[in-house]
Amino acid sequence: MIDVRDRCGRLVGLLCLTIVTATAAATPGTPGADAAIRRAAEELGEAIRVARQPLPAGQRAALSAVIMKVTGDKAQWRQAKTGSWRAAKADDVLQPGATMRTGPRSTIALRVGQNTTALLDPRTRAVLPEIVQEGDTLRTILLVNRGRADVKIDQVGLTNDASIVTPSATLAVRGTGFAVRYGAFDGTEVMAARTNEMFAIELEYYLSRFVYALSGAAISSDRHPHPVLAALFPTVGPPPFVTLFLEDPDRPETSVEPVVRFIVEELIRGESRSFVFDDMDVVPPQCLDGALVLEFGERLIEQFGLEDGALTNEILALQQSIDEICQRSDDPVADILAQVTAFCAEHTPDTDLCVATFRGVSVP
């Protein structure tokens, strides 16, 4: 295992990446490989910069969405209202107007246009009525008919105009993120977005696709024969932290760029195969993303067949206790686990299963 924490500092959310490799050191590149990689990276970076330029006044261009990750076997989408449903899978490219639905234990994570990442929970139905660039504005609409969607909006140098619409509310997002949940009885609820989980999905997806784009096989007169790559750069933009390596390889290194550069180069050489957040023993995810505790409550309701709304006050009290632990404890992991164990013993019939559920939610 190669630990790159000393090379990259602390990433967003105080998390740092460890690269799992087959060997302890990178295999030297073949002659000319580094130069070819750099040329390909510069071309891809240029494609991204061109895509993020303002359009002439009055001109508009439809953008796309790409599915980055699917969990479970009950995730589907269709392009038209009367079209056939198809099983969702990574690399599926969706055009404006597409509808998505997820069943129990199934999720969809997708990148929408140049600036948006969305994560659809189980039992969610959502539509993408509009993904478009108009002049210097990126306009995105996500309609959530039921269930929960987490949305993160990146600043990419253009004006953000994103709206999350439910049957009872319209919420504007200019350059941040949140989660929205809609149900027939509770209406529209707004909560914290699981930004760390989306961060991990983005990183794994885009860097693995960069390997294809930057590999020797893809370096030819036709740089992007893969249809997904063709969509990724002109109409579906990678998150800014991923493109630092591509946009200007000679720029002064930031705290993020060294790890991105390192991962890309390792992947191209065939060394790295997976990404692991290894700071669970330093900074618990609950101290970074309060929505994890809310998700834990939802899982308990499903796990033990409880009525919707059960344990609401108890979960909120648990969240408050964890917040206090994060602020004052010298060993937050142990203290949080002890707090959760006590909670499970008091409020559920199976303490071990309850704690295991908590761990399942907590590990990215």
Provide structural commentary.
- This protein is of the alpha+beta class and 364 residues long.
- It has three domains: 2-52 and 198-279, no CATH class; 60-193, Jelly Rolls, CATH 2.60.120; 284-362, no CATH class.
- It is built from ten helices and 17 strands.
- It has helices at residues 5-8, 33-51, 195-214, 227-232, 240-247, 257-268, 291-303, 312-328, 332-347, 351-362; strands at 2-3, 17-21, 60-62, 65-71, 75-78, 86-87, 93-94, 99-102, 107-112, 116-120, 125-134, 137-153, 159-166, 169-173, 177-183, 187-191, 272-277.
- The strands form two sheets. Strands 3, 4, 5, 6, 7, 8, 9, 10, 11, 12, 13, 14, 15 and 16 form a 14-stranded mixed sheet that branches. It has a three-stranded antiparallel sheet with strand order 1-2-17.
- Helix 2 packs across helix 5 (240-247), helix 7 runs antiparallel to helix 8 and helix 8 packs antiparallel against helix 9.
- It is globular, with a radius of gyration of 21 Å.
- Residues 1-31, 216-225, 251-257 and 271-283 have low confidence and may be disordered.
Produce the secondary structure layout.
Layout (H helix, E strand, L loop, with lengths): L1 E2 L1 H4 L8 E5 L11 H19 L8 E3 L2 E7 L3 E4 L7 E2 L5 E2 L4 E4 L4 E6 L3 E5 L4 E10 L2 E17 L5 E8 L2 E5 L3 E7 L3 E5 L3 H20 L12 H6 L7 H8 L9 H12 L3 E6 L13 H13 L8 H17 L3 H16 L3 H12 L2
Parallel strand pairs: 12-13
Antiparallel strand pairs: 1-2, 2-17, 3-11, 4-7, 4-9, 5-6, 5-8, 8-11, 9-10, 10-12, 11-12, 12-15, 13-14, 15-16
Helix pairs in contact: 2-5, 3-6, 5-6, 7-8, 7-10, 8-9, 9-10
